[in-house]
Amino acid sequence: MISIDLTKIKRFKKIKKEVLNRFLHPNEIEEYIKIEKEKKATFLATRWALKECIFKIDNNLYEFKKIHIKKTNQGRYIFEDFQLSTTNEDGYVVAVAFKK
């Protein structure tokens, strides 16, 4: 199965902490705190788009905060047996997820 999601980065510029706790895994929150201010909205939009894709493929993964998306040193996103990819263009994040 394959899933695609398009997310507007601007939506995540003024997000409240309570919302972060609802969709970010605790380790992702730690990572978010450490990144530069101008990269925070893109970080959040990317995680949201990837989690939307994962959920569209597997509805059992409805609690986004339990989905821990990791980023490798090579810049690839990983989560269990999903293949994930993203790109940013004109203020949007496009995410794609694939699972056999």
Describe the structure.
The protein has a single domain, classed as Alpha-Beta Complex (Ribosomal Protein L22, Chain A). β3 and β4 form a beta hairpin. The chain is of the alpha+beta class. A 5-stranded antiparallel β-sheet has the order 1-5-4-3-2, with helices on one face. The mean pLDDT is 95. The N and C termini lie close together (6 Å). It has 3 helices and 5 strands, in the order βαααββββ. Pfam families: ACPS. Keywords: Magnesium, Metal-binding, Transferase. InterPro entries: 4-PPantetheinyl_Trfase_dom (IPR008278), 4-PPantetheinyl_Trfase_dom_sf (IPR037143), Ppantetheine-prot_Trfase_dom (IPR004568).
CATH architectural category: Alpha-Beta Complex
Q: End-to-end span in angstroms?
A: 6 Å
Superfamily at the CATH H level? 4'-phosphopantetheinyl transferase domain
- SSE order, one letter for each helix or strand: EHHHEEEE
Number of strands: 5
Read across the widest sheet, the strand sequence of neighbours is 1-5-4-3-2
Mean pLDDT: 95
What is the highest CATH level, the class? Alpha Beta
Write down the Rg. 13 Å
The portion of residues assigned to helices is 25-40%
Given the C-alpha coordinates, what overall shape results? globular
Largest sheet: 5 strands, antiparallel
Which spans of ≥5 residues are poorly predicted at pLDDT below 50?
A: none
User: How many domain units?
Assistant: 1
* Helix vs. strand class: alpha+beta
If helices are DSSP runs of H or I spanning 4 or more residues, what is the number of helices?
Answer: 3
CATH topology label: Ribosomal Protein L22, Chain A
- The portion of residues forming beta strands comes to 25-35%
